[in-house]
């Protein structure tokens, strides 16, 4: 798909969000982010929630979005096409994360007992919600396409986890810090479903690590806007409003500069999941 430079006649700044934490939740908070960025950048800001990870990537490549909060594999795809990722999220002091494969509490599932089960994933481009767990299962000698009775994509972590709780699926996966143990606040289960939700699930396995989500910027975006956005995002933790945005929208404690081509290694994960 050819890259398109955003129109010089458009006066608004467009920021895209993924649907992974639930579209309704993201839309509720998009207005808060838009207002904050508008004051910081001195431009009209529009914040939208993409219907899928693929749409998020296409919006950025086509110029429909000037920047986006993007999952790692989308960042890797963007980097491969010459798009710069300016910052990445930091969670609990760490710039990487992994995935936890989970089932309902009491189900007693293990990797060896997943044959014939139904899996609920987030999105085919979701690192913690599909790519990492799929690559992990294959490394354990379990081919998901043959081992699972069915696999379906819910579009969000909430949807995948609720599918397990509702009995529509037996297994799902969710993001978690590298040092996490168990399913308390240290995993994404409680970030997504709220305090105490970890008790409703059991841990099956942890996967390898991947870099945290990042913010790629569109090709052709004015350097002064790129610099202003980078400064604004790295300064979010300096105000109560910014801290709330970090928690509610980015599930992060702060942003840090993203290393150039820092997502390249994810292609190995993506290939292993195919």
Write up what this structure looks like.
The structure is a single chain. The protein is of the alpha/beta class and 274 residues long. It has two domains: 12-92 and 212-273, 3-Layer(aba) Sandwich (D-Maltodextrin-Binding Protein, domain 2), CATH 3.40.190; 96-208, 3-Layer(aba) Sandwich (D-Maltodextrin-Binding Protein, domain 2). 37% of the residues lie in helices and 23% in strands. It contains ten helices and eleven strands. The protein has helices at residues 23-41, 53-62, 72-80, 127-139, 144-147, 157-165, 188-193, 223-234, 240-250, 266-273, and strands at residues 12-17, 44-49, 67-68, 84-90, 96-104, 118-121, 150-153, 171-176, 201-211, 214-217, 254-257. α1 packs antiparallel against α9. The chain is globular and about 55 Å long. The protein starts with 11 loop residues before the first strand and ends with a helix. The model is unreliable at 1-9 (pLDDT under 50).
CATH homologous superfamily label of the largest domain: Periplasmic binding protein-like II
Radius of gyration: 18 Å
**What pattern of helices and strands is seen along the backbone?**
EHEHEHEEEHHEHEHEEHHEH
> Major sheet, described briefly?
5 strands, mixed
| Number of domain units | 2
- State the strand order across the main sheet: 7-6-8-5-9
CATH topology of the largest domain: D-Maltodextrin-Binding Protein, domain 2
The secondary-structure class comes to alpha/beta
Helix content: 25-40%
Q: Uncertain regions: pLDDT < 50 for 5+ in a row? A: 1-9
CATH class of the largest domain: Alpha Beta
| Percent in strands | 15-25%
Q: Roughly how many Å apart are the termini?
A: 22 Å
Principal-axis shape equals: globular
The chain-level mean pLDDT equals: 87
Name of the CATH architecture of the largest domain:
3-Layer(aba) Sandwich
- Counted by DSSP, the helix tally is 10
Please tally the β strands and state the result. 11
């Amino acid at each position: 798909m050819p890259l398109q430079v955003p129109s010089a006649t458009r006066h608004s700044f467009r920021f895209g969000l993924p649907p992974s934490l639930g579209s309704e939740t993201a839309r509720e908070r998009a207005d808060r982010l838009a207002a904050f960025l508008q004051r910081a950048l001195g431009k009209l800001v529009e914040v939208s929630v993409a219907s899928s990870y693929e749409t998020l990537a296409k919006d950025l490549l086509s110029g429909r979005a000037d920047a986006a909060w993007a999952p790692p594999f989308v960042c890797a795809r963007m980097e491969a096409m010459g798009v710069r990722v300016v910052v990445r999220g930091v969670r609990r002091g760490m710039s990487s994360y992994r995935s936890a494969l989970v089932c309902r509490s009491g189900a007693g599932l293990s990797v060896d007992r997943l044959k014939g089960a139904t899996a609920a994933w987030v999105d085919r481009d979701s690192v913690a919600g599909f790519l990492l767990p799929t690559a992990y299962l294959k490394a354990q000698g379990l081919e998901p396409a043959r081992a699972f009775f069915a696999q379906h994509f819910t579009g969000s972590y909430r949807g995948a986890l609720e599918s397990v709780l509702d009995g529509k699926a037996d297994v799902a996966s969710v993001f978690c810090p590298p040092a996490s143990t168990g399913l308390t606040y240290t995993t994404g289960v409680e970030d997504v479903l709220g305090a105490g939700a970890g008790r409703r699930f059991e841990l099956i396995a942890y996967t390898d690590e991947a870099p945290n989500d990042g913010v790629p910027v569109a090709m052709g975006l004015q350097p002064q806007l790129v610099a202003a956005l980078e400064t604004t995002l790295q300064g979010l933790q300096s105000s109560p409003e910014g801290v709330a945005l970090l928690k509610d929208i980015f599930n992060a404690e702060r942003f840090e500069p993203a290393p150039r081509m820092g997502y390249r290694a994810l292609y190995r994960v993506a290939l292993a999941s195919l």
